[in-house]
Amino acid sequence: MRARTAGRRYTQEESADWLAQRLLKLDIATYEEFAAKVGIDRGTISRYFRQERRPSIDVIAPMCEVLQVSPETLLIALGAIDKK
């Protein structure tokens, strides 16, 4: 993944790339497996990382737990907040 400049949000492509790399690192084979671990459906996960929807607050913690990242890291990856 290429370096990002401060104050810029992830694009849809960067969000999808980030998730793919994270799942690979964690040995999670598919969106379906990730979605099952989080407890939500695959389509919803896909919409989050295509930046079509923002996750509700009650989904952030389980996603962070499965992905082993902080809420800030997840929100940056989702394009919800700027990278510092």
Q: In terms of structural class, how would the helical and strand content be classed?
A: mainly alpha
The largest β sheet comes out as: none
CA radius of gyration = 12 Å
The helix/strand series, from N terminus to C terminus, equals HHHHH
Topology:
Blueprint (H helix, E strand, L loop, with lengths): L11 H14 L5 H8 L3 H8 L7 H11 L3 H7 L7
Helix pairs in contact: 2-3
List keywords for this structure.
84 residues
Can you walk through the features of this model?
- The protein has a single domain (12-77), classed as 434 Repressor (Amino-terminal Domain) (Orthogonal Bundle), CATH 1.10.260.40.
- The radius of gyration is 12 Å and the shape is globular.
- It has helices at 12-25, 31-38, 42-49, 57-67, 71-77.
- The model has no long low-confidence stretch (mean pLDDT 91).
- The two termini are 17 Å apart.
- The chain is mostly helical.
Compose a concise summary of this entry.
With 84 residues, the protein is an all-alpha fold. Helix content is 57%, strand content 0%. It has five helices and no strands.
